[in-house]
Write a structure and sequence with these properties.
heterodimer; A: about 200 residues; mainly alpha; 8 helices; about 0% strand; B: about 475 residues; alpha+beta; four-stranded antiparallel sheet
């Protein structure tokens, strides 16, 4: 019930919410996990209830795993990158607060994406702009919460928030790039070892 | 009763569905027989390069290697040959032939660099020499290979190696203009190169040229169809008298999706169109024929590369008689292969003709029969959906559009269905709105108050959330 109460608060008083999140013991890992799971469920349900005219993918093209990865990887990489960048540039936020705070920033999406998607069942494609408006509103709200989070948790002024956000995004891409390269190298290496064993087996 | 021997077709029928996957289909065309001229009055063919079939189903074959044009009836009995042994009527590798309604034969006499004109009786009439114009440019080399003559008497000539389009030439041999040329597509790489390259580097980059037109066909309405050699999109065009493509809207890809792709593009070398607007094109890379209806829906694919009857080695020309039999010229095997329509092919043609004219309701029964034979035929779902829509059976239309994966049409039908549903259930909707209003106005505040009290109570009783109590209380205070 506590989570629900906090979800309500992040919608109504985001500034206060993020102030309060800095109180000792206020940020909980369990909340973050719960919210991410809820966001995942909201995403899957919204895909499920989309009206036929608005579907952009065939059912077989949708994968539980990929949807999950596309939610969790940006969330974690954002948190890590934001924490790293802001720590260097005198931010006050702790890693745990950033992770939990980012998860709470998804609350508008969790609560409203399903009702808005239900609209696609009564709207025709001519009225797509109505649906687009609501979806853009949700996105805007989530982005706004992310920015408020950066501002309050690290105690920055507006100009620095924008600067930090840009640096965070760059950091995210660098992280993905490094992971991608690492994956390639490790894959090559593992293949090399396997082939080596095969070769030795074959010769003896 | 004569017995016809039959064997399985060497090629399997397939079609592309709405997901651009190739799926099994029933063949619309099957191999009938071949003719190579051996042991006949005409003698064997040598590298035939073009075929023209006139309104009376008489064949004119450009027998390029033998420097002659053969006129045959539709059972390959020789009627006449064009091209003299000596004199001005001697042809040199004629690659194209066109015959006007009065029987005048126009021959693209490729290596003589002229158009030779013969009278209907076979005698040489005159020649139309190489056109001269400053518009053609200095590097222009005249190599006429295919031609048609329009109703005004203008010749439209494909000259090999010319990328500016068809040459429009008057009866006197004067060059009028280029017609229906392809355009160079926008390309980021080219743009960047042009920005960053120095003057000398730019001179070294080979100028991108528009794609060459390989062949052309004139339908009964006077539209000129062209095929383009290579290219990914819009390789077939239907040109209006002012040279505007009326067949393709946006980028349309013809031919096979997988055997072509960016690595080996189809090479369409000829096109034929029947009176219902069925477009059949042949691809020299796969040696397959692709048939589309007037709106550009793929109907049938037949042929292929190989030695068996029904497969070909180098397709070079295609035309059809009035009964729909396809004549495909194979210039490597020096023969003409005939393909006949199957009953399924005829059924689809009839249904498609009605569909193209917008007579969806009449076509519906035919399309249902098509589906009975072949449920992979996605166009049928779309057509039945349209029929249902026209009959104002919107719910069924939605179902069929869903099967056809046509979202815009589905949405349109849904809109009508929604309108109908609202009209039928108007009282209930009104009642619902009133009830909802009462609920929101009077019941919701009470419910929210109760919920709050309950959350507060459960929050206080929970020992697990002791640490966050301070925040909760602060929240209540604030």
């Amino acid at each position: 019930m506590n989570t629900m109460r906090m979800m309500g608060k992040v919608l109504r008083h985001p500034n206060e919410f993020y102030y309060d999140l800095q109180a000792p013991g206020a940020a909980k890992w369990s909340h973050a996990i719960l919210l991410i799971v809820l966001a995942f469920i909201a995403r899957m349900v919204s895909i499920l209830v989309t009206g036929y005219a608005y579907e952009t993918r065939e059912p077989y093209e949708i994968s539980f795993l990929f949807e999950f990865v596309w939610l969790v990887v940006p969330w974690i990489s954002w948190s890590v990158s934001n924490w790293a960048v802001s720590t260097i540039l005198d931010g006050e936020g702790k890693f745990k607060e950033i992770v939990v705070g980012s998860a709470y920033a998804l609350v508008p999406y969790i609560l409203f994406v399903v009702p808005v998607t239900l609209l696609t069942n009564v709207l025709s494609l001519d009225e797509a702009s109505t649906y687009g408006l609501f979806m853009n509103f949700i996105q805007f709200w989530v982005i706004l919460l992310f920015l408020i989070k950066v501002r309050v948790l690290h105690d920055f002024e507006i100009g620095k928030v924008v600067w930090i956000t840009i640096l965070t995004l760059i950091g995210m891409f660098i992280m993905w790039f490094v992971c991608f390269i690492l994956y390639g190298l490790i894959d090559e290496f593992v293949n090399f070892i396997i082939n080596l064993f095969k070769e030795i087996n074959f010769r003896t | 009763m004569p017995v016809t021997a039959s064997a399985g077709s060497p090629y399997e029928g397939y079609i592309y569905n709405n997901l651009e996957d190739d799926v099994h289909s029933i063949n619309g065309y099957l191999y009938l027989d071949s003719w190579d001229g051996f042991g006949t009055e005409a003698g064997p063919l040598n590298a035939p390069d073009d075929i023209y079939i006139d309104a009376h189903d008489q064949l004119y074959v450009a027998d390029s290697g033998n420097n002659r044009i053969l006129m045959l009836d539709d059972e390959f009995e020789l009627i006449r040959t064009y091209g003299d042994a000596e004199g001005p009527g001697k042809l040199n590798t004629p690659k194209g032939v066109y015959v006007t309604d009065d029987g005048t034969v126009y021959v693209a006499d490729t290596n003589n660099k002229r158009i030779a004109v013969f009278n209907a009786d076979g005698s040489f009439a005159r020649e139309i020499a190489e056109p001269k114009s400053i518009l053609l440019g200095d590097s222009f080399v005249y190599s006429p290979s295919k031609l048609i003559v329009d109703k005004r008497g203008y010749l439209f000539v494909v000259s090999n190696g010319t990328t500016n389009g068809l040459l429009q030439i008057s009866q006197n041999g004067e060059f009028e203009s280029f017609f229906g040329g392809n355009r160079v597509r926008f390309n980021w790489t080219r743009l960047l190169l042009r920005w960053f390259a120095s003057e000398e580097q730019r001179a070294q980059i080979v100028a991108e040229r528009p794609l060459e037109i390989s062949n052309l066909y004139q339908d009964t309405e006077g539209f000129i169809y062209t095929t383009t050699l290579g290219g990914e999109f819009n390789q077939v065009k239907r040109l209006s008298p002012v040279g505007v493509d009326t067949l393709n809207q946006g980028n349309v890809s013809y031919g096979d999706y997988f055997s072509s792709g960016p690595f080996s593009l189809p090479a369409f070398v000829d096109v034929t169109v029947d009176r219902n607007g069925l477009i059949t094109i042949i691809d020299q890379n796969t040696n397959k024929a692709f048939q589309y209806n007037k709106l550009g829906y793929l109907l049938f694919i037949f042929g292929g590369t190989g030695e068996q009857n029904g497969l070909m080695k180098t397709v070079s020309a295609i035309d059809q008689t009035s009964d729909g039999t396809m004549y495909i010229v194979d210039s490597s095997r020096n023969r003409i292969d005939r393909f006949r329509t199957t009953p399924f092919g005829e059924l689809v043609h009839r249904a498609s003709a009605l569909y193209v004219e917008g007579r969806y309701e009449e076509a519906e029964a035919l399309w249902r029969e098509v589906l009975r034979y072949n449920s992979n035929y996605d166009m049928a779902y779309h057509a039945i959906g349209k029929a249902m829509y026209k009959a104002e059976r919107y719910e069924e239309a939605m179902e069929y559009f869903k099967l056809a994966r046509s979202r815009p049409d589905y949405s349109q039908a849904f809109k009508e269905y929604r309108k109908e549903w609202m009209r039928e259930h108007f009282e209930w909707i009104l009642a619902g709105v009133v009830v909802l209003f009462i609920l929101i106005r009077y019941m919701l505040p009470r419910f929210v108050r109760k919920l709050r009290a309950w959350i507060g109570a459960s929050g206080r009783s929970s020992k697990l959330h002791d640490a966050t109590q301070a925040i909760v209380k602060e929240g209540e205070a604030g």
